[in-house]
Design brief:
TIM Barrel, nine-stranded mixed beta barrel, disordered N terminus, 15 helices, 332 residues
Length: 332
């Protein structure tokens, strides 16, 4: 069975929404000296999944109206007839909607469960999504999650298999002019072998020129991980970031002996979020590492929102555009 994002939500419930995705903040374009010049603000559309399901055209219009420059897609859904749709829109229709609203899409999240599952490894599932990404003008095809049914039983061998498959996927993506990547949550930071985490295995076993990583800073911080240490150890491998903020009243880590044996649903159901700039994450400090990380694009996301969703993404947009860009000297 193919697991798309909607299937995931039906099975897992809203509390794990944060764990599945993922998000969009800044867009970066390399300058002549290779320094990432943050100039645009983007949004991971999963933040507005309910609004998109109700009225995709209106939702995309509001995203652009607020000021966002680009979006990261999620899904898509594949019908019994093999047709791919995003929130009821054919791929070409979505492409047209984005163009009409002046929105670009550099990256998308695609369910690669079949491709990443031991004993399956179906390349056709990946190839279909490469075609979709190319039609949308995207540059990155991102695996947002391991095979969902394996999350609570992931072993070092599972991570090694995924790394090998990502290398194969990277070769296929390169032939289509695309790049494959992997997006983390918290379980990748669980210790698998001695001091090595799942994230360590993925980074060490994948080829630098074939596979990139999208660091979800919320989950790395929530795991008690030093994100900057990963950037310094693996420079240039994190061209994509997800930025979402952490509720100041709920900052406890979710990695360690007390948590690692717990089902992910039990952990994610108690996690709460905040609009970017209102929570506990020091984005200005982390953004100082953008050059060594190799940052190209980053995405504002909020998995669960307690206020009007459009007001929420507007507040996050304002913080990114006015505070972070200004602080690090990119608000020209």
């Amino acid at each position: 069975m193919t697991f798309n994002r909607r299937t995931f939500l039906k099975r897992a419930g809203l509390g794990v929404a944060a764990a599945y995705v993922t998000p969009s903040l800044f867009s970066c374009a390399p300058t002549s000296n290779g320094r990432a010049a943050l100039s645009e603000v983007g949004l991971q559309l999963y933040t507005l999944r309910d609004q998109l399901a109700e009225d995709a055209s209106f939702t995309l219009h509001r995203v652009a109206e607020i000021g966002y420059d680009h979006v990261e897609t999620f899904g898509p859904e594949v019908g019994d007839n093999g047709k791919v749709q995003f929130w009821g829109l054919e791929v070409t229709d979505l492409s047209s909607q984005l163009q009409q609203n002046g929105l670009k899409s550099y990256s998308g999240h695609y369910d690669l469960s079949e491709f990443l599952t031991p004993g399956n490894g179906n390349e056709d599932a990946l190839k279909a999504f490469l075609d979709v990404a190319a039609t949308l003008g995207q540059r990155y095809v991102i695996a947002p999650i391991p095979p969902m049914l394996l999350i609570d039983s992931m072993t070092a061998e599972h991570y090694r298999f995924m790394a090998d498959q990502l290398n194969k996927g990277g070769e296929l993506a390169a032939k289509a002019g695309l790049t494959i990547g992997y997006h983390n949550h918290f379980w990748e930071f669980r210790t698998m072998e001695e001091t090595r985490t799942g994230m360590d295995i993925l980074l060490e076993r994948t080829e630098n020129d074939l596979v990139v990583f999208e660091m979800d800073l919320f989950w790395s911080e929530k795991s008690g991980t030093d994100s900057a240490a990963y950037f310094r150890k693996h420079p240039g491998r994190f061209p994509l970031w997800h930025l979402k903020d952490m509720d100041k009243t709920n900052t406890g880590t979710v990695i360690g002996p007390e948590y690692d044996a717990k089902p992910y649903m039990e952990i994610t159901s108690s996690i709460t979020y905040a609009e970017v700039g209102t929570g506990s994450i020091d984005f200005k400090r982390i953004m100082a590492e953008n050059e060594i990380a190799g940052l190209h694009y980053a995405f504002v996301e909020q998995d669960v929102i307690a206020m009007d969703p459009f007001d929420s993404i507007a507040e996050s947009y304002d913080y990114v555009k006015k505070r972070i860009h200004e602080t690090i000297g990119f608000n020209r």
